[in-house]
Amino acid sequence: MGIVNKCSKQMAKRRIAVVGAGLIGLSTAAYISESIPKCSVTVIAEKFTPNTTSDVAAGMLIPHTYQGTPIYQQKQWFRETFDYLFAINNSSEASDAGIHLVSGWQIFKTIPDEVLPFWSDVVLGFRSMTEEELKKFPQHKFGQAFTTLKCDCPSYLLWLEKRLKGNGSQVYIRRIEDLWELHGKYDIVVNCSGIGSRELLGDLEIYPVRGQVLKVHAPWVNHFIRDGDGLTYIYPGIHNVTLGGTRQKDNWSFSPDPNSSKDIFDRCCALEPSLQRAQDIKVRVGLRPARLAVRLQKEILVRDGKQLPVVHNYGHGSGGFSVHRGTAKEAARLVGECLAALEGSSSKAKL
Ligand SMILES: Cc1cc2nc3c(=O)[nH]c(=O)nc-3n(C[C@H](O)[C@H](O)[C@H](O)COP(=O)(O)OP(=O)(O)OC[C@H]3O[C@@H](n4cnc5c(N)ncnc54)[C@H](O)[C@@H]3O)c2cc1C
Ligand SMILES: O=C([O-])CC(=O)C(=O)O
Fold first, then answer.
1. Pocket lining: 314 vs ligand 1, CB cutoff 6 Å
2. What is the model's pLDDT at position 350?
3. Above 90 in pLDDT, residue 351?
4. pLDDT tens-digit profile of 22-75?
5. pLDDT at 344
6. Which residue minimizes the CA distance to atom 4 of ligand 2?
7. Which of 318, 322, 324, when mutated, tests ligand 2's pocket best, judged by the most ligand atoms within 8 Å of its CB?
8. For residue range 65-100, what is the model confidence (pLDDT) as tens digits?
9. Which residue's alpha carbon is at the smallest distance from atom 8 of ligand 2?
10. Which of 2, 109, 137, 326 pairs with 157 at a CA distance of 20 to 30 A?
């Protein structure tokens, strides 16, 4: 926090547009508006909650590894996110923000390469499961027990949006075909368009990994269970239990597949037979914005001799909730650099 531009005293309020109102757009906009006082923040997006990928997510804080990002960096993002949400969890905001702790097990059919993942000392009470605990899962040979945080995703997105509006930020529903449309009206653009970046920027490194989940009513389930293969999980939340899932690379379909729903339900019931009694089963589909590394980068767009500074923050794949606060902080730092460059060039022009 505290990215206050050195030149802020003499500068006019800079106008910052954030494209995207999923988790990444809203959390980045929130970080910018909290840490850079001399600016106005506007969020522009085609879709808002409850219609984003971020609304479909389970919202668990269990990191997924980005192959193209150094582990120390991923750990820092995770720690910053965990600490931020843990503080909310321990405040009067917890219920509005939809944040809570949840304990459970990650279980493996074979001993994993990494018995001690890089995030093991960030979550709470990480330990190997006992023989006694493993008896509940006869197909599995090894397991990890820990307590982590979970977001009720639509509540958290609404809470972020409310905070933004409370800080004086504007929000607009609009599809952007070309970031240059924002030139002239805004000084800096922050691109948080998730999978939309493929079309918006022509970035072919980002691709969808389709995820289908079931949201069910089963309030007696209060321990999470995740198969280490990443395909089957049971995540109890405030309003429902999320049962997953699927990971279908390059599949753009939003239509629920009944065969996948049955398969997900059967896999989850095999781990937690009481789920046979689950009620009010709803199917949701989301496209994870997958990329080898999250793109956190400055770019200067140039047309007809005019410039538009852009900060990219997209490509969070399966792990957006786990790292969002850390990547928002880094994006805000890059925005601070763009502001300093703009102030530098405007004071030179005055000489
Ligand atoms: C089934 C499933 C379960 C998941 N579970 C977890 C989990 O437990 N833990 C975890 O950490 N992560 C999880 N994830 C991953 C997480 O959901 C994503 O990493 C995260 O939601 C990405 O957020 P985003 O803001 O980048 O994308 P989105 O939520 O897709 O938001 C993108 C925004 O950009 C806007 N946009 C795009 N293009 C344009 C355009 N041209 N003009 C204007 N606006 C545009 C969209 O309208 C939207 O507002 C899960 C994902 C799925 C699908
Ligand atoms: O893998 C998980 O535990 C949940 C998740 O992040 C996803 O489905 O993308």
1. yes
2. 62
3. no
4. 999 999 999 999 999 889 999 999 999 999 999 999 999 999 999 999 999 999
5. 82
6. 58
7. 318
8. 999 999 999 999 999 999 999 999 999 999 999 999
9. 318
10. 2
CA proximity to 206, closest of 110, 316, 299, 100: 316
Binding residues for FAD: 53-54
Integer Cα distance of 84 and 326 in angstroms? 9
List, for residues 269-294, the tens digit of each pLDDT value. 999 999 999 999 999 999 999 999 99
pLDDT at 7 > cutoff 90: no
Q: State the chain's maximal CA–CA distance in angstroms.
A: 76
Q: How far apart are CA 157 and CA 78, in angstroms?
A: 19
Quote the Cα angle for 225-57-323, to 5°. 90
Which ligand gives the minimal distance to the CA of 49? 1
**pTM of the predicted model, to two decimals?**
0.95
Write out the DSSP string of 177-205. S-GGGGBTTBSEEEE--GGGHHHHH--TT
Which of the four pLDDT bands, split at 50, 70 and 90, describes residue 11? Answer: low
Pocket test for ligand 1, best of 61, 180, 201, 318 (most atoms within 8 A of CB): 318
Q: What separation in Å is there between the alpha carbon of 50 and the centre of ligand 1?
A: 11
Give the pocket of ligand 2 (CB within 6 Å): 58, 60, 62, 64, 211, 226, 230, 233, 244-245, 288, 318
ipTM of the complex: 0.99
Rounded-to-integer distance, Cα 127 and Cα 144, Å: 6
Tell me: pLDDT of 20 over 80: yes
Rg of the chain taking only CA atoms, in angstroms = 21
Tell how far the Cα of 236 is from the centroid of ligand 1, in angstroms: 20
**C-beta of 24 in contact with ligand 1 (< 6 A):** yes
CA 194 – CA 206 distance, rounded (Å): 9
Whether 29 and 41 have beta carbons less than 8 Å apart is answered as yes
Question: What integer pLDDT is reported at residue 54 of this predicted model?
Answer: 98
